[in-house]
Amino acid sequence: MSLKQIEKKVLSGKRLSPEDALELFNSNDIFTAGRLAAHVARSKNGDRAYFIRNHHINPSNICVNRCRFCAFSRSEGDRGAYELSIKEIISKIRKWYSTADDKGTQRRGKNGSEVYREVHIVGGLHPHRPFDYYLQMLSEIRRRFPGLHIKAFTAVEIDYFSKISGLSLRDTLLALKKAGLGSMPGGGAEIFNGRVRNKLCPEKISGARWLRIMETAHRAGIRSNATMLYGHIETYRHRVEHMLKLRDLQDRTGGFQAFIPLAFHPVNTKIPGAKYTSGTDDLMTIAVSRLFLDNFPHIKAYWIMLGEKIAQLALLFGADDLDGTIIEEKITHSAGALSGNAMSKAALVNLIEKAGRVAVERDSFYNARMIN
Ligand code: V47
Ligand code: SF4
Q1: In terms of residue numbers, what domain contains 178?
Q2: DSSP type of residue 293
Q3: Residues 11-34: tens digit of each pLDDT
Q4: Structure pTM?
Q5: Tally of structural domains, the chain
Q6: What CA–CA distance (Å, rounded) separates 210 from 203?
Q7: Whose CA is nearest to atom 7 of ligand 2?
Q8: Which residues line ligand 2 (CB under 6 A)?
Q9: How far is residue 78's CA from residue 76's CA, in Å, rounded to a whole number?
Q10: Is the distance from the beta carbon of residue 335 to the nearest atom of ligand 1 less than 6 Å?
Q11: pLDDT tens digits, one per residue of 138-179
Q12: For residue 136, what is the domain's CATH number?
């Protein structure tokens, strides 16, 4: 099908086929893809572009998987290996979540610091920590900071928790939810194709298992995001296959909130000949995902991986969310991220407004929140 025919399909609201998505990638025509994706984004989210005041915490980088693309992980005893106690996690949060009453009341923190709404927690698969450690972590955070949304644990971690606890997937998820889990991030999806996955991360759960865990989470009332790691050894066909599987699952559960294409970072990884992605590939991937994933409400341009300026441009190519303040990022920065580590609310608003969009501060479920 020609780009003209694809354009007709998009403008009449028809779903794109995998061949259409492949055609868009192969065309290298980022301007046509971007214009169409911006049209779709506008019809879903108007002029709005979202951001959130959030903070990342990685409880440990010790991981039994040691994926080849991951520069963050260490084995036990390696130089640079670390593990945080629950006390250390709480004091980290206390440092930045400095509301006067800890009840999540929206108020400026001490010394005019920002008020955060969400903590994003992901880490390695630790060889010795029991499931109870993770439950206690959640319940302690919830007890001390009841207004803070906890978005935590990738499907890969959920699978591991189910193994170490001996609980079914559903019971693992329900126990986490009861302890305070509010939603799940979309990491660990990488590329679903088995052959590529085996080369990238032979120890990691399969794509089918990742999808099953997300389905179970959605059916247990836990919403999540979905990601795709691109720009390493995969082809466009693998990317489209990956997105098709996500689209099919979303048709069945409706539990995904945002799709986040993750630009591969090559430094300190074990991927032979690996290079940074190009800005044009980043923008094309955002645009094709917006066009193809017609049942995903949001496409996130994760500024940490894209860099501030490509993330800003992505808002004109189909993205409607920049993620947030982040504050402390380890995974991408271990692999050569060129972006900063944190962005203030003012800087996020500036990026969005200078792209001609209306900045909307959101909570973890995309409800608009007043900017204070
Ligand atoms: O699962 C690891 C990826 C993910 C590299 O859901 C790498 O809101 C690039 O999933 N180069 C973690 N990527 C990050 C993630 C995420 C980030 C922000 C928001 C959300 C969300 C999710 O990072 C991992 C893996 O897929 N990753 N190593 C690397 N060298
Ligand atoms: Fe472990 Fe996740 Fe890194 Fe893989 S990507 S080595 S599972 S921390």
Answers
A1: 3-7+15-369
A2: -
A3: 999 999 999 999 999 999 999 999
A4: 0.96
A5: 1
A6: 13
A7: 65
A8: 63, 65-67, 70, 72-73, 124-125, 156, 201, 204
A9: 6
A10: yes
A11: 999 999 999 999 999 999 999 999 999 999 999 999 999 999
A12: 3.20.20.70
